[in-house]
Amino acid sequence: MYQGRSRVVIVSGLELWQWCQEARSQAAEFNVPLQEIDWLLQTVADLEKLELRLQSFKTRSQINMQIPLIQLTQLWQRRLEERLPVQYIAGITPWRNFFLQVSNAVLIPRPETECLIDLAIAAAHDQVDPRSISEIPEQWADLGTGSGAIAIGLAEVLTNATIYAVDISAAALAIAQKNAQTLGWSNRIHFNQGSWFEPLQALRGQLNGIVSNPPYIPSQIVPQLQPEVAHHEPHLALDGGADGLDCIRHLINQAPDYLQPEGILLFEMMAGQAAEVRQLLNSQGSYQKITIHRDLAGIERFALAYRK
Ligand code: GLN
Hints:
Layout: E1 9-11, H1 13-30, H2 35-44, H3 49-54, E2 63-65, H4 69-81, H5 86-90, E3 92-95, E4 98-101, H6 114-127, E5 138-143, H7 149-157, E6 161-167, H8 170-183, E7 189-193, E8 207-212, H9 227-230, H10 246-258, E9 259-268, H11 274-284, E10 287-294, E11 300-307
Parallel strand pairs: 5-6, 5-8, 6-7, 8-9
Antiparallel strand pairs: 1-2, 3-4, 9-11, 10-11
Bound molecules: glutamine (GLN).
Residues 107, 110, 213-217, 225, 229, 238, 268 line the site of glutamine.
């Protein structure tokens, strides 16, 4: 897979245009969205969106590419035949207002998960006097950080918070750490390898907020997901056990021990899980102000609760 390197390969506009024509007809044949070609070329070649859209790059004598065309062709074949996600080919994905490096060691951060950060901002403002939000040092956790998306998103908006990013996978944590470093957040994000709360023992009772996009897909559904997901994304980040709620139950049961009074628990879930999740939060007994929030597609996707 392609990972941002510095080597530059030069191709002619015409060569790349021919590559594009071929890729377009294959995309149509294999039912892959055509926009993926332009997006991929923007990430591996020094091409602007508009040049791609107008195909004006065809007459350029030189275009710098980060990989040779032959390698791009090989990767594109994997997109078509193995349904390898285009983000893993490019090695990056856009998320909120930044780009994250991704590999198949991490789940590709989804657009709907971007809402978790907005909900965290709103919840943090509800929790304290908004005027003091940037003055009080806070401690937040992102459990199951994967690419580090949530931890980085939180670091950006909670300007005085230290974020503890936890993942059981060393390979995922290495990517999260690299992303934090590239985007300039290493000083406020601490990385800890381990299972959920395990590495955060010293923070019992001290966290202002816990945010997570845990695995929540029922085990028997995982193999039926679209092949891009089922065959390439880490099942560790998807499989939530028999009913999909194993990790969510663990979060709900453990979080009260780690949150300050009024501390926030905020996590993502699957369509159809909201009623049961609300019930789990209620019956745990330590939470108040329990709310369910929809994503932009109108799906009940997020649960928010405050420790009593
Ligand atoms: N939203 C992801 C999907 O649809 C699943 C992410 C997760 O389990 N946390 O594949």
